[in-house]
Amino acid sequence: MNKLGPIGVFDSGYGGLTVLQEIMKALPKYDYIYLGDNARAPYGNRSFEVVHEFTLEAVNYLKERGCRLVILACNTSSAKALRTIQQIDLKHSEDSSFRVLGVIRPSTETIGGLSKNNCIGVLGTEGTIQSGSYKIELEKFSPNTSLIQHACPMWVPLIESNQHQTDIGKKIIENDIRELLAMSPAIDTILLACTHYPLIINEVKKIVSEKINVVSQGPIVADKLSNYLQRNEFMRAQLSKGGTCSFLTTENAAVFNASATQFLENAISAEQIRL
């Protein structure tokens, strides 16, 4: 039997903190380690090969720190690296009980049932949208649902630099939303397919019609993880329950601590690491 370990949560930057927060609300008894590869962020425009390389390095590091389960709380990593990690890297691992999960599958399992018009809009990074992962996964669960996608390359930089509330920032956000809605008048549900975007969900809701449901991923991922652990006694038995959370970053720790306050309710103290 492996030693009990925490749940790892990984993102290329800060956005995964929004997912971590929801997971900790749903599953407060478990231990967590959050790792942000902030020094190499953003991942959105990087190739499949580079995203896989960087993500695998992070996954292996979290495994070395004792994690038995890692959540890729990053849409780009989930889109460009998860399948290779699950189907190739983990299959060659001697540790057959270690698991890595993403955020795209739980999102697509859920959003199809939220649209009355069977027409969903997706806003995400260029990497996520260009990967086609949402379309592929949604067809498995809701084959009769149309998916309209639009890339928002400026949103993450705006959020991380705290410029999303400036006049220019608001205009960029509004223009992207208008471009998405112009593609189909039938859109009645919008998925914010980047873990940074919950920080601007109120701005998005102000722009769209009240009839459009704007959905963020954190609560969905937390709910699906809860269900996964309820069904999977073997994984549940590998996880430590001390109610703790530690934070790791490849960026300067003080910079990470300051920026993380946008995403978390409480102040944190991160440890700088090198992958």
Topology of this protein?
Blueprint: E1 7-11, H1 16-26, E2 32-36, H2 48-64, E3 69-72, H3 75-80, H4 82-89, E4 99-101, H5 104-111, E5 119-124, H6 126-131, H7 133-141, E6 146-151, H8 155-160, H9 167-183, E7 189-192, H10 201-207, E8 213-216, H11 217-231, H12 233-236, E9 245-249, H13 253-260, E10 271-272
Parallel strand pairs: 1-2, 1-3, 2-9, 3-4, 5-6, 5-7, 7-8, 9-10
Helix pairs in contact: 1-11, 5-7
CATH architecture of the largest domain: 3-Layer(aba) Sandwich
Beta percentage is: 15-25%
> Largest sheet, order of strands side by side?
4-3-1-2-9-10
Could you please say which CATH topology of the largest domain applies here? Rossmann fold
Secondary-structure content class: alpha/beta
User: How many β-strands, per DSSP?
Assistant: 10
Q: How is the main sheet built?
A: 6 strands, parallel
How many H/I helical runs? 13
Q: Report low-confidence residues grouped into runs of 5 or more.
A: none
